[in-house]
Predict the 3D structure of the following.
Amino acid sequence: MGIPIGVIGAGSFGTCLAMLCAAESDVTLWARDPDVARAIQVEGRNPRHLSQFALPAGLTATADLQHAVAGKELVVVAVPSHALRDVMRAAAPALHDQAIVVSAVKGIECETMMTMHEVLEDVLDPVHHPRICCLSGPSFALEIAERQPTLVTVACRNEAYAIAVQSILSRPWFRCYSSADVMGVEIGGALKNVIAIAVGIGDGVGAGQNARAALMTRGLSEMTRLAVQMGARAETLHGLSGMGDLVLTCTGDLSRNRRVGLALGEGRSLDEIVAELGEVAEGVRTTRAACRLAEREGVELPIVEMVRQVLDGERTPADAGSALLTRQLGRERESDPY
């Protein structure tokens, strides 16, 4: 067997990553709800997420967060972005000094405008900072659980740790690439959710496939513009964690953010949409945080701003589309500072 691994978060993505790791390692999966942890232990299935899949024998579950991370050489974090700070602050005392921490969380913290990597650095002891990695890319949890071919990127400022994680997680159906561009990978993973809402809105109002392609292309420009301003490499946004994840999230039927946009475009209220989904899609929170971050960085994100105005009820979807189309004209490449 491989190294002991802890997976924090028993949602769809945490569960599928725990299944992936448990193929070759002993894995402890933390569930916030003790009833979920008990059900996994007794029934060998997650009763709320990916319940159609039997979990590997090497996977155990617990509601004790510190037990889930104690003694683990690799800790994978897959919780909602707004929960990351509190969860990892609580887990921190039990983390082994040499543990590699992998964030599979995509978002920007609303209160601080920090990326998830920055949040982890803020709450974890400096001894852990060199080993903080982030995992991102086009990866629906259901397809990972089905062992459908999936490619992702693992980034760490010290790429040696990204390469170590790459080796641990890669399977014949799950291929990891390494990167040292943490900021590029994180901004791509966060903002693609916002662009997916925009594309969903366009599809919801019947704007057509031309508009969908334009929103995705110009959305990629906005993602790259902000990432480069924050020190990322433009080419990272053209890879799996940028364009790859953008294409999947904007076009895939399993995309929660696309579904939010579709419903908004069809005239439904955000409260109604959230009630149906059961929770807020990451892109909703990220939209507002990204607008604040862009203002701080002096970067223009017209599509992201229009999504915010629709979410906040300041414009109708049709008005937002018209506002984007009637912006001052310019040359495509010269309008981008990268």
Notes: The first strand starts at residue 5 and ends at 8. The radius of gyration is 20 Å. Residues 149 and 320 are 37 Å apart (CA to CA).
